[in-house]
Inverse folding.
């Protein structure tokens, strides 16, 4: 999870009573806040979030197809024994799961650590050195993925790659809190998730096409070409965000109003260390409740993704689940991309709770239909509902997360979301043992039970996330101004 925000200019009673005020001028200002004009710095929401396109593209392409191919190649050359368990060609899924879980574990450590370190710095550019070092370190590590010849070596290299990437991500989690006001966090969350979806979709699609030509003996160069593409894209998108935010021009009154932020004084005192420590009361009860809800919804989304391949093969009866999976992936990705920006603006206009209920209803409808689905066409149509649910939940949850943390400790507290991702992803993978046993008892029963459980996850998430108290004691820390590094 990374950044969020929206306009904040049409949220008052005047906008409601006079909708005509949302004119071409206000629409143009909204347009300018979203798209990445470099000179606007933090006044462009995509400038705040473009780095996420690179990191998301990197992580998604690593998961599909780079790491699966490398795991398979290593196991074909001989089994590996780790923690007393022997991994060979017959349990490559288990080996891949071990590699991915190790990456999630290091993410759960690296993000909060980087968050704490970046929170201690002063100024609007305080996150940027961490983001730059982390992204470039990750891009460099990826270039060595063709070298490991053992499963242990691949796990260790992946720990370095994930550690560096999540170190940068942990600091970047605080960018929205630093630069976007309370009335615009929904739009910023939409812009962030649009960057993520586009980055993941574009990079992964190109890498899939390139790796389709790959052969370890006859065409080995496609692997390195894919890794270079991933590294270059991650580096360029990160450099855009870092360079656009490092030195900012003074904001105009219209831009300050658009992002709902207060103008920064040219020079402000640095808060004393003892005052900073006294203001830190730690994550609030509302934020801890939010993290529990996030864990639940991550469990549901992760289970949908994890068992989709075998669901298409065993329940829908596809002989080539990969082709069917591509159709569904396109349906979900396109719908998610089309959903995140409107969801962000609506989140700021009508509030978090109505949008959370909307996302929950979409998620429940999708999973219930999947229980009775019997064709690829039906599943692809359900993919549209799933994409809409993902777009709504991603956007609203990140806006809500930024509501619940103080600006001073934003990156640290938002980094705890990586722990929720780790727990949710682990829970969904462990549930696979139960799915297999239920399927052995009755064909398809395991998938029906897991889909029912996913629907229940959506209901629980909405119940936990709605009516959260965003007026936390740590909000007082937000009023402390920061000194600009550009001064």
């Amino acid at each position: 999870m990374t950044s969020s925000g929206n306009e904040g200019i049409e949220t008052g009673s005047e906008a409601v009573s006079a909708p005509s005020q949302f004119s071409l001028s206000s629409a143009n200002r909204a347009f300018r806040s979203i798209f990445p004009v470099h000179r606007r710095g933090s006044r462009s929401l995509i400038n705040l979030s473009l780095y996420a396109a690179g990191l998301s593209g990197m992580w998604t392409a690593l998961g599909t197809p780079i790491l699966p191919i490398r795991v398979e190649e290593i196991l074909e050359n001989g089994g590996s024994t780790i923690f007393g368990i022997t991994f060979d060609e017959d349990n490559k899924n288990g080996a891949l799961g071990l590699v991915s879980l190790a990456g999630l574990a290091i993410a759960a450590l690296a993000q909060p650590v980087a968050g704490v370190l970046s929170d201690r710095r002063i100024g609007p550019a305080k996150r940027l050195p961490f983001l730059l070092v982390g992204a470039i370190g990750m891009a460099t590590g990826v270039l060595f993925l063709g070298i490991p010849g053992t499963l242990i070596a691949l796990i260790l290299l992946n720990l370095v790659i994930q550690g560096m990437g999540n170190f940068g991500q942990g600091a970047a989690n605080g960018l929205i809190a630093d630069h976007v006001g309370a009335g615009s966090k929904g739009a910023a969350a939409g812009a962030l998730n649009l960057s993520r979806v586009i980055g993941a979709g574009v990079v992964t699609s190109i890498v899939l096409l390139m790796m389709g030509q790959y052969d370890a003996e006859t065409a080995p160069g496609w692997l390195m070409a894919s890794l270079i593409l991933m590294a270059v894209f991650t580096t360029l998108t990160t450099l855009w965000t870092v360079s656009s935010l490092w030195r900012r021009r003074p904001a105009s009154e219209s831009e300050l109003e658009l992002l709902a932020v207060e103008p920064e004084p040219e020079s402000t005192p640095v808060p004393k260390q003892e005052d900073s420590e006294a203001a830190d009361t730690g994550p609030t009860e509302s934020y801890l409740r939010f993290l529990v809800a996030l864990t639940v919804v991550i469990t549901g989304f992760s289970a949908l993704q994890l068992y989709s391949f075998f669901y298409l093969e065993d329940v829908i009866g596809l002989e080539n689940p990969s082709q069917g999976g591509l159709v569904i992936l396109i349906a979900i990705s396109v719908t998610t991309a089309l959903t995140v920006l409107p969801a962000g603006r609506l989140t700021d206009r009508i509030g978090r709770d109505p949008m959370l209920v909307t996302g929950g209803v979409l998620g429940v409808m999708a999973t219930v239909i999947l229980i009775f689905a019997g064709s690829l066409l039906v599943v692809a149509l359900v993919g549209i509902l799933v994409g809409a649910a993902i777009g709504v939940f991603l956007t609203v949850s990140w806006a809500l997360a930024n509501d619940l943390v103080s600006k001073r400790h934003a990156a640290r507290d938002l980094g705890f979301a990586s722990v929720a991702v780790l727990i949710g992803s682990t829970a969904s993978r462990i549930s696979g043992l139960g799915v297999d046993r239920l399927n052995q008892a009755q064909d398809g029963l395991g998938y029906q039970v897991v889909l029912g459980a996913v629907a229940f996850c959506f209901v629980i998430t909405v119940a936990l996330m709605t009516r959260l108290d965003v007026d936390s004691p740590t909000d007082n820390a937000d009023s402390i101004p920061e000194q600009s590094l550009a001064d």
Notes: The mean pLDDT is 80. Residues 281 and 474 are 7 Å apart (CA to CA).
